[in-house]
């Protein structure tokens, strides 16, 4: 199973931010840590250690879901879609025109446009979501940092 890269994890943590006390997110959902929502009640408090543990568990579920789409994604594409699904939920990704556009082989412009449509929470444009979608759209089209290692011809190594 594919996992989010260190680059993707760092950005995801930056976008989510660490909040040790429960709060209502922009959509009114009780949230804690790095965007953790399962079983959170207002008044809950968390340590940084547990915030990391919840993030890893939450990410594992999202990585599995994105992997289940069966797409041949490179690492930057996977990072972008995991960030998107972590933020909005896998169902939103699975039923989105973004995914449809990707599956249909849409142009760079069309795919970037689809990412950038998802900037609303509570009916309002959220500056944090604008930044996140811009990063995801950019990341989706970045070259894979590991690709040179994957395609290198090592046959001359032993000569």
Description:
- This protein is mostly helical and about 160 residues long.
- Helices cover about 55% and strands about 10% of the residues.
- The protein has helices spanning about 5-15, 50-65, 75-90, 90-95, 95-105, 110-115, 125-140, 145-150, and strands at about 20-25, 30-35, 120, 125.
- The strands form 2 sheets. It has a two-stranded antiparallel sheet with strand order 1-2. The chain has a two-stranded antiparallel ribbon with strand order 3-4.
- Helix 5 runs antiparallel to helix 6 and helix 6 runs antiparallel to helix 7.
- The longest helix is centred in the middle third of the chain and has 20 residues, at about 50-65.
- The chain is globular.
- Mean pLDDT is about 90; it is low at about 150-159.
Helix content estimate: 40-55%
Q: First CA to last CA: what distance? A: 34 Å
Q: Residue-averaged pLDDT, rounded? A: 92
Strand percentage lies at: 5-15%
Low-confidence stretches: 152-159
Secondary-structure content class:
mainly alpha
Cα-atom Rg, whole angstroms?
Answer: 17 Å
Number of helices: 8
Strand order of the largest sheet: 1-2
Number of E strands: 4
- The backbone outline, from C-alpha atoms, is globular
The description of the largest β-sheet is: 2 strands, antiparallel
Give the helices and strands as they follow along the chain. Answer: HEEHHHHHEEHH
Please describe the topology of this protein.
Elements: H1 6-16, E1 19-24, E2 30-33, H2 48-67, H3 75-88, H4 90-94, H5 97-103, H6 108-115, E3 120-121, E4 124-125, H7 127-140, H8 147-151
Antiparallel strand pairs: 1-2, 3-4
């Amino acid at each position: 199973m594919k996992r989010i890269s260190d680059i993707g994890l760092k950005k995801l943590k930056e976008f989510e931010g660490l909040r040790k006390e429960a709060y209502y997110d922009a959509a009114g959902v009780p949230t804690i840590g790095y965007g953790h929502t399962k079983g959170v009640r207002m008044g809950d408090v968390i340590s940084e250690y547990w915030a990391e543990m919840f993030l890893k568990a939450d990410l594992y579920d999202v990585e599995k879901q994105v992997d289940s789409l069966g797409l041949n994604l490179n690492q930057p594409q996977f990072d972008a879609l995991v960030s998107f699904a972590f933020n909005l939920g896998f169902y939103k990704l699975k039923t989105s025109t973004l995914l449809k556009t990707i599956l249909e082989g849409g142009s760079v412009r069309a795919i970037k446009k689809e990412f950038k449509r998802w900037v609303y929470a509570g009916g309002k444009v959220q500056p944090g979501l604008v930044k996140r979608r811009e990063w995801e759209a950019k990341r989706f089209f970045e070259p894979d940092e590991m690709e040179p290692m994957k395609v290198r011809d090592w046959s001359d190594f032993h000569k």
